[in-house]
User: Fold these one by one.
Assistant:
Number 1:
Amino acid sequence: MSRLPNGGLIDRTRTIPFSFDGQSHIAHPGDTVASALLADGVRLMGRSFKYHRPRGVLTAGSEEPNALIEVGQGAHKLPNTRATVQEVFAGLQAQSQNRWPSLRFDLRAGLDVLHPFLGAGFYYKTFLWPRSFWHRFWEPLIRRAAGLGRISALPDPASYDKAWKHCDLLVIGAGPAGLMAALTAGRAGARVVLADEDFMLGGRLNGEALDVGGMAGADWARQVVDELQSLPNVSVMPRTTITGAYDGGTYGALERVADHLPDTSPAPRQIFWRIVARYAILAGGAHERPIAFPNNDRPGIMLASALRSYLHRFAVLPARRWVVFANNGEGVRTAHDLLKAGAEVTLVDTRKEAPPETTCRHLPGAEVVNTRGRQGLKAVELRLANGDTEWVEAGGLAMAGGWNPGVHISCHMGARPVWREDISAFVPVENAVPGLEAVGAANGDFSTHAALKAGAEVAAEALGVKPVDLPKAEDAPIEITPFWQVKAKGRAWLDFQNDVTVKDVELAHRENMQSVEHMKRYTTLGMATDQGKTANTGAMAVMAGLTGQGMAATGTTMFRPPFSPVQIGALAGRQQGANFKPERLMPGDGFARAHNANWLEMGLWQRPSLFRAEGERTWRQSCDREVKMVREAVGITEVSTLGKIELLGQDAARFLDRIFLTPMKKLKPGHIRYGVMLRTDGFIMDDATVARLAEDHFVMHPTTGASADVLSHLEFCAQLRWPELDVQIVDASEQWAQVAVHGPKAAEILRGPGFMRFANMEIAGVMARVYGVSYSGEPGCEIAVPARYGAALLGWLLEQAKALGGGLYGIEALNVLRVEKGYITHAEIDGRVSHHDLGLPTPEKDFIGRQMAARKGLRGPELVGLKPVGSAKALIGGALLVEGEFSADNVQGHITSAVFSPTLGHMIALGLLQNGRARHGERVRMVDAMSGISAVCEITPPVFIDPKGERLHA
Amino acid sequence: MLEDNGVFTGLPVELGAMKLEEVALPEVTLIAPFKGQMMLVADALKQNIGLILPPAGQYRASARAGAYWRSPGQWLVFGALDTGALKGMAAAVDMSDAFGRLRLTGGREALARLVEVDLEAMPPGQVAHTALVDIGISVIATGDGFELMLPRSYAASAVRRIETAMRGVVARRLVE
């Protein structure tokens, strides 16, 4: 048992059972999976990524590269969870990863023997012959072997929320610096958010035996947190990682609400916050560095600060005999803490000039050159200052290689940190993120006193308030002599997660991948879940030594959000599945649902595609029936999705005349005209009908899909192009429900104002706008009533239609009707089509797009009709039109819309074809290159029924 | 006479101290003064409904009417209005059916799941034109809660989003 009898910030009165790889263990509240396993004598927690070497825990925090576990069962399974972060809960089932068949016996550890052939970038140099083997054999094999962790591939059953928070001060990190900052701002009444990724706030204070204000640091921290939680203006957020800094003082934050609770908890599992802060203080502390020496990756070898955390916070002594390997004064602190816990210590200090230490065996100027103990550290080989070597028995080795300030957030907007020679560390650049300032260890000030002071003072200055009084605390200087790697035989690890050693960096250097960005990609150092937090600086130091450029010139790689992994579910929040986008429902939506509609999504709109009648099993049956019904009796369909844009004012006519290619100025009140609008590049933007209600009042109906763009276009023209025109534009699309009533018997329901005429009429007691337009080619009109009456209007019309043998129809039938009549949609005017292609004349007047539409190159394939001839009966939308053999050079056009016409008894299509207007009666082949289907077609005029429009003018 | 089919279904939603309910809309008119007519329009409205049109970001109410600025040169006016008095001076477009209006009380934390403006810092009478995630809305701070104006066709989706956020807040509190 490695649990110490006293101490720790755990609750020894309660126990929590959990399992790891099927073995039962006991933890206490306050334990992580890592601390509980160490307490139970378990040192082997994972296998390394490439070589499958046995690994134990390196750290006690979120930067952990080795102890990655799977937590949860079935669909709840989450891979790559850091055992150092995962709180234990009753019934937690954890599994190790990346090993087969077991953690203790992993067959793929054979790869370690092959390591001379598996160095950095080996895959660029092998698998080249035979060529066919790559796709069939190597690639699938590598794909199966590669990767870190496996997902369940089942739909994620957890729910996630997203939310916004606003504050005067965001404090990132609740160590001594952050607590003082939050206290200063909180007591002054400012809106404060204090976020820390840990579940227990206090930062390093919880992992050290340091006093603050005359009491244990952990106790002081708890007192401050209690006070902060009592202040209504302070939001204390534990388990919350600030993931990134973005524009405008906005920070991303991931709150792990329920990752420490059983899967059955009803709470959202995580909340992704956007926090908007006037000021932010980066008090996220620093990450300790390992030292590179041969076989420095065995279970039992960890960072010195991690060991101290296990001692003080979790009351765990992972082994009895220790070697402490340090290049700075913290080796002594570590040795003292170990001795107090009853361990035997050998202190190996790389600094020859280190002050002598008498409490334990002290070896200044010595180095660790090797280790033994594959499944767990057994012995350590030392090289003393005089060159002698000796083996020392040890179950634990603590590395103190110096500290890397957590600069990441400060670099998210593109800045690179600055090298400080005096502390051997990169520190944040001032003003790298507007409004953000780093304090404490995050800024290279490593003593507790410096952290407390900076936190209080920076918060006070930012908000213009008094800093709170400083409690007394230690103020020791860092005293580091840079030492990055031991020169000795054997592989020395730099990046534990990606299995990258000093040899790999040397290889990268030889291959001329010398810039740190190239080194990263070539060796994969600094990638994956820990993003090189314990690896980057050591590797940069090795490269700096090889290039001779020094650390400042070598620099760091680019830092990008997120700071630590974020589940995709948290980024999606509630906007998943059916809720991914909002729905827009027509006023008659409920009415249609009650009448057996099938539904189609058109953008955000839900529209009835057809209304299934008794006995109909295919969509074609319904569609064909509805088309016949409209052509022979009368059909009712809701068209409320159309844009309805009102233009008012004395210059409304002039304005529209410039917008449309079609002349509009002389349109008479009470009349309607169909027109097209061009883009400034001369192509057609949209078509629309324009009704003139009065001298200075127009209503425009652009197509459903384009109405938002058209409105933007109109606003741009009115506000910026022609601000001198007196016109007001109002989008009244939502105000009106609009229903189309068409067919030979439509007039028996309502006698409209006539073809292309407008009138205000009272219908069933309600004032309606009635437009004499037809999209089906049948006589009738569109009736607009205020939206509240839409459903009732449909009912009123349907009752009368039924009595005449008519009924409801949907957009499938509407589409057939309009193709029969040759009316176009954006299938025809797809953005590449000019008015010349449609056969429309160019008016004399000016209009948007006039200049560019005059270009010769804008005359392209022309609108035609098509019908199949011979035995092939099918026409396929999107199929290409060719003459003779199909080839890419031989394409003369394509089919834009193809439907079966029940009216004519065969398929018909509209299409765009080179020189189409001159080729009526000729033949052309349609080819669908994807399916291989082809058919011969006859080219016809683009209208199939009532070409002279006699039905409409009746 | 055709029946009036309401805007929302499934309301009110009450969860703990949070309540989401429909606010019945009076006549709603969009007023857009023509060039050089702003002063005349302002006078006419003052006489007609006793209201001075507010600047952007403010909701103003008189005994008979209320109004807020909607976009450059355009206001929404709530309440019976004699549009004849504005003839020739302004575009006056009936928009009584174009919107749904909701009132949310006790639900600021839920609304902050969906709306990115600083709700806590909005004094009563302030109007923010923003989005409910992906639905364009106007938010009016009333002092004891918020009122939301949204396009009619989005009514069901908006209620669904807000109700989900309310339930999420309740579920979150269970973990404390």
Number 2:
Amino acid sequence: MKLTISQEKLSQALNLVSKAVSSRTLNLVLAHIRFQVTKKSLTLTGSDGDFTIEHTVDTEGEREGALLVPARLFVDLITRLPKKDVTLERQDGMLKIVSGYSDYSINILPDENFPSLPLFEEGKLAQLPAGLLRSALGRTTFSALKDPSGTTSHYTHGVLLNFHEDNLDIVATDGHRLALERMDNPAPEIKDRSLLVPTTITEELRRALPSEEDKTVEIYFLSNQVFFKFDNSVFGGSLFDIKYPDYLKVVPKETKSVANVNRSALREALQRVLIVFKVKEQNPVVRVETSGDSLVISSESQDVGKGVEEMPFTQGSPFADIRIAINPAYLADVLAVVDADTVDLHWTSEVNPLKLELPEKPGYTYIVMPIRMD
Amino acid sequence: MESLIVHADLDTFYVSVQRLLDPSLVGRPVIVGGDPHGRGIVAACSYETRAFGVRSGMTARDAYRLCPQAVFVRGHGEYYGYYSRLVKNILEDFTPEVAPMSIDEFRLDFSGMERMCPAPSALAERIREKVYLHTGLPISLGLATNGLVAKVASGQAKPDGYRVVPPGEEAAFLAPLPLGKMPGIGPVTERMLTERGLTTLGDVARVPLVMLRALLGKHGEALRMKCKGEQVITARETRTVKTLGHESTFKDTADPAKLRAILAGLTAEAGFRLRGGGYTTRLVILKLRYSDFETHTHQRRVDALFSDDAIFKVGCELLESTFSRRVSVRLVGIRLAGLVRDLHQLPLFEWQRRIKRQELYAAIDSVRGRFGLESLTTLTAHQARERLPAEASA
């Protein structure tokens, strides 16, 4: 195997596929990245045994071949090389890396036992603009939890893609708040199919998806595996095979009161009142209420002190005075990711869910459950 | 403006409560804790027994050897909490700043209340009188400009008295006291200091800082400040609860039904404290000790739980998987970890059901808070209490 490639191209590709490599793996093979060189391309693969990222770079290989390089070490080395051409060559059972005045030989493994993505010519489910999926995931994924151990499957550890009649719903929840993005079903022939994709995959996917308008992402579904194919990359992994709770049931359809608030003013106010809570305080609480024509946010922490923020708001219809206690982080999270000038807060009572919608963007819904104060 | 801290410490609290429940114990040597012929340790002992060398923490058997004439009584955990809350309520009539330091110790802050307060000694007399009149419990007080000196002063005031350390006299008050009086000087530190000829707190205050640093590391500086009677500001005064648990030693049994019944009682205690702090638990740990002292713990991750029945169900399943040997068991314990203070955060799914359960437990807890844990109990836990003491004394 021999190839010459620019350092920038190589480290970019390595950074992408190394996202799937687990630092805690017990399997030696999985601590490696697979290199496959053909006459026309270089294909890199990283995997934790389930979640796999494959990326192909168009480049001319001098000699074809495949091998496994130690992921951590190789990424560390390549990203620190000067921005010049790098020559990689298999020599005496080692990988020789030459770039400018640098010359390294590192131990490698033969290309054996590395998990490979199945050939998935069939099983194509849908195709949609990559930018659309990227921004939809950006507005939803943050609501779900990341499984710290990577071993359990729970509905809070995944993002649901639900193809249902005319809609594709993207849903994420941690059990206390929920984000729902509804878009037109890109594959209307699919009447009922839901995929619960682990958050570890959607999080990396969101970052890697191109934001250009004209690029597309293809979704494949085979038995319990899902693949996202875009540009020269494939993201693949197992779906959670568990039942997702009926999220539509918890979205309040009718509420007693609507208030329209400036997004950045609300966000900045929440960030300031959060300072009143110690960093370690696990669950901060703020009261949000309307008083005359202003929205009042107040917080109090025994150890630090208290703070009050007031801002104007516009009454919607219907309207009644609002009074609710919530975790301010839940509201600040969503205000950070949505791109809108104002947000609508829908409210019914102190115990009913608080609903946030974007007047400029129908189809997006965010729900926060309140904290009971008595 | 000087600050004024009052450290209140109930004298031989468990014994005093037992004497309220059974007046015949007044004036007699009393030991609260385990069975003198069986197992268990001394949880508290009256002043009469201390003359014989009895100390809390020793085994009941040893205490019996030292003081066979003592009356041994079993503790009534739920009454202690009740009386402790009662005393706290009374203390709150004097100042809103009452911080419980343990079940029988409170720190009262009167700083900034000079104009409302009488002189310290008159204040102390009023507090002691009111607590005694309303509860019948003797309480000792230490009054000083900071909590640490106040605590040491309350120790010097015992039994049934008070001690005022005027501003500026802190160092002079501490100087003649032996090392062991200072919180934070345990047997190991005490031995290290004594070996170097330091026997009183005044000695430690006078020693050059470098020597204490060499001896005790960074604690040396704090200790020297403490011995001078100066306020030491620690990074984190309030402790956050990480886990909470209860365990019980009993007459060995291999009967699974009996073990479950004991577990039910322990779960009720742990659940009461869990909800009292506004927590939910995410990890349930069961501990089992066989009669040969082989000890096993099994744990399970759970969704946020707060109700006794849900925790008990997990506990029973863990008990079943842990109890694998055909040997009798002498101790069962349950511990709740992964505590998150989100009892009042409503969940998205089935929140109406959650509100109902929360209201049910709020009602149960308020009854238990007023009348003791035994006042309202599940059938399983009730059977445990019915059967166990009778067999233990048999």
Number 3:
Amino acid sequence: MNEPTPPREHPSPVRPRLGEMLVQAGLLAPQDLERALKLQRRTGSPLGQILIALGLVRRYDLYRFLARQWGLPFVDLLRIRPDRTLARRGNPETYLRLGFFPVERQGDVYTIAVARQPDPSLVEDIRQALALPPYAHLRFYVTTDWDIEQVVREIFHRDVLNAAVFGLYYRHPHESAYTVLTRGQFLLLSLALLFLLTAGIWFPYPTLLALNALVNLAFLVGIVFKFVVSLAGAKYETMEPITREEVASLREEDLPRYTILVPVYREANVIRPLLESLARLDYPKDKLEILVLLEEDDKETYEAAKAARPPYNVRFVIIPDAPPKTKPKACNVGLFFARGEYLVIYDAEDRPEPDQLKKAVVAFRKGPANLAVVQAALNYYNSRENFLTRMFTLEYSFWFDYMLPGLDRLGFPIPLGGTSNHFRTQVLRELGGWDPFNVTEDADLGIRAAAHGYRVAVLNSTTYEEANSRVGNWIRQRSRWIKGYMQTTLVHLRAPMQLVRRIGWKATLGFLLLIAGTPLTFLAAPPLWAMYVLWLLTETRIFDPFFPPLLLYISLVNLLLGNGIAIYLNMLAVFKRRYYDLIPWALLNPVYWVLHSIAAYKALWQLLTKPHYWEKTVHGISRYGFSENGNTG
Amino acid sequence: MPAPEPAETMMTPLKPWSNTTGQSPRGNRALLPWAWRLAGLLTLFLPLALLALEAHRLLFLSNQHAHLVAKALLVLDRGRVELIGFVYPPLPFLLLLPWPHPLWASLLAALMGSAVAWVALGRMVRAGFAPWQSLLTLGSAMLTPAALYLSTQALSHVLMLLLLVFTWFFFLRFVCDGYTQAGFVSGMLLGLAFFVNHHALGFALGYGLAAPFFLRERTPGRILAATFVLLFPVVWAAGIWMYVNWVFTDNPLQFLHHPESSLFVYGRVLLEEPIVGWPLALRSVAQDLLATPLYPLVFLLVLRYRPKRIGVYLFPLLLVTTVRAWGMVYEPAFARGTLLLIALAGVPGSMPRAARLWVVLGGLLTLASSHMMGLSGEARAWQAVLLQARPRAQALEEMDIARYLRGFPPQRVLLDDRGAYRLVARTGSARPFLLPADAAYPFALSNPARFVDALVVPTRPMPHVGGPMLNEFVRHPPEGFTRARAWPHWQLYLRQGLSLPTP
């Protein structure tokens, strides 16, 4: 009775071939079978997977014939109602991973729907997963893997949502931005504020002087840091960590399964170009699963996605409508269903270079064992649309082409960009996925990975996006990023000495200068500029007491040298991509920085009033399109 | 993709004793690269340092060093660094702040000079010259009066040459090899050079104009980008300095007019041989060329083997001639040093052996010619002091005055350091003096008896210095003062009833 129960169906004496069966049934043309078999020889993937990925056979039909081949009955899992109580004996991750779902129990007989042929090891796993008694008999039916996924989503709707929203918070509450300020932080900040207020009233001059000194010193250190890092990045400008030859030497049969997550919300106008862009990726379709993450209340985008008639390797995952309504929450739901060895996020307006996935595979294979993430560069295809897009392009080119490589080279933690982060899926799960309460979940994850001993590296591949071309939209987007940086700073400084112990002093300092320094810089700049402009226009002496000689010199250095260096460094941005015509625009950086400061104050306000609110950026408003050979802007 | 091997840069480690295959003729006795460099630098530094010491022992003090030392003393005594708004060039001045002493200025100059020589030596070795050829040529160049003078008595100028030569090598790396980082370094060096010498702007313009001729990618965009990278820092630096001058003196162009460091001939108080106008400019340049035959000789070699670079090669000559013609100062020693350096740095790399011998010959000729022609102005005086092993009368006079001035209480001696900075430097402290930088100075000038115990004025009025009131005192002491001591160039007035402090 402890022996595995054989399938009830009588096995055929000679196992028919799947392809032949489909051809005989008229569901597949012989030449299509030939094509699929050729591809199978190249990629080594199962034939069924190839047939679905190429859109030659419907999933439903394929599994029906697989059932015949395995000598098992077929069941449409969506038409019957599986026993929920039975289902809850196991956990949904196991069902997805092993490809089975418990349907019903009749006495000692358990009906199990499977999406793969049962073998002794699967049977054993099922018994363990459901904690079945030794005398239990298993009766197998074949169903599709999508149906299993669908049923899991339906029955474990709450669990998936809970895991997506609170998974990180439950596992590592100190790493979640769900709590904006811990008790300790609140106390410390309150005391500091109180102290400042008291000191400001009783000793106004020394207090303001001390504040002024602190701000100016911080500016100076910040600019020196950026100078050193960006020139370090420039030193390796021509280096290609992953070469074309390495990519070409990859054999398709050795390529792993890759998951692409595409969170979309109110992007009906860009979903079709996105899918077309993803279709251009140079990766075997049968090894690529694309999960389009659609919000439950976004019917318009859902209809647009369906109307785009996506290929069979594209699946829609409906994200339950529940707070927080953020991209990282959606990505966590997607992570739940991801089956790839590697995983990447793309936004709706992204246009990645076709060989990006293969480059990532090479990077992971070449890299050390603790390499968890590789970050591709982001740039814009509408860079020349207007002032804003030009400045944005300069900024991003500087950041991704020089700062990130510099941080990488000098051993500083790398804050991830919003998209085109390629993960080892298993490591991503270990880290707890994304923090759904952090509006720059990417930056946070980069620091979290470093804190857990993982490395982030830079990939020499580019994803082109749409640069914000409208000031209002830009400020909304930028305020979210700055708010996210503030959140990330607060989260990772909850236990500063622990952070130092984990990543070292140098990396901690780098984190502070980049993540904390950015919002602080833009918050502190307007008062200083206001003082300066007032002095310039009126020649007032009221600020003289707050600028004793040494502080005056530091301020002058910041004003004159600091700004000059910042503008000059921004000119670096044009070289790698040969955007030479943008170089004069670097002179307008001070104007651009004003916008940053506006966004910073908005971010601060939102941090206090609605910290988890996701300020949605509108896409698809550019007049410029994207052509296959790159930037049309 | 491995980086292309740079042809003429300074990025590869220097092995001056190696042949071109990189193998040491001494076998495999490995010394760390930095040890080689340090040893080489010391070897070049020591003789220059000894020369500086000897000149110091003989009480020689160049105007440039005196000016810098005086300003450093002033800043340290008053504790106000914003006084650098009155000082140009600021960078050499800042280097003197740790020890504002004429000897320190000379030793620093010697260090810079040896660094320039080291870089030039490395350049020659990489260009394929045998060690003996490199040493002979370089040695000849270093032993010219101009090189020796610059390397011991002209910190600003030799620092400028050092920055220019570094800029050149990074510039080549940028335009020829496409290394962006090198372009930004060369731009920043040019920016830094502006804080050393006015002519950095001119040189930067030269680099900017030369870039299109060297760029591999000669597109309008690339040329634009290269120009921005090279010119932005120096223009920004000029803007910074004008701003600082405006903030502290209300005149953004104040730094162009200081009597010692004025860019313009008419602004220089102690300039002995002003050169203005095309005839004088051309004549002076011809003399410079005669004193440095290496330069025209290398010009011929460049024309033969690297004709594309001829414009760049000639640019410094054009710059020197033009600035002089327009009434700006380009001292003869500095001009000769510039031409020498350009010649050494500009030697074409791909030349036959025979052509290299011409360079050696050019070096020897330069040594002979430069000594025959000698220097002019203050540099000539320096030469005379060393050859005669005797201090100048002027130096003895200044030391004598300084002995008295040291004994005065703080800010009790009225003195205009725009003309009398040498006295401040000789005194070794700015404490006894009430100077134009001090708020009380104009009041003291109109009523000395109320503010000071003594005045030091020249025996003849100085143009651009002092103003009518101080120049009035040149003829007779102010009310309440008598002439206590007089020297050939200076006179000391003391308040009636006071006696001179014991030296």
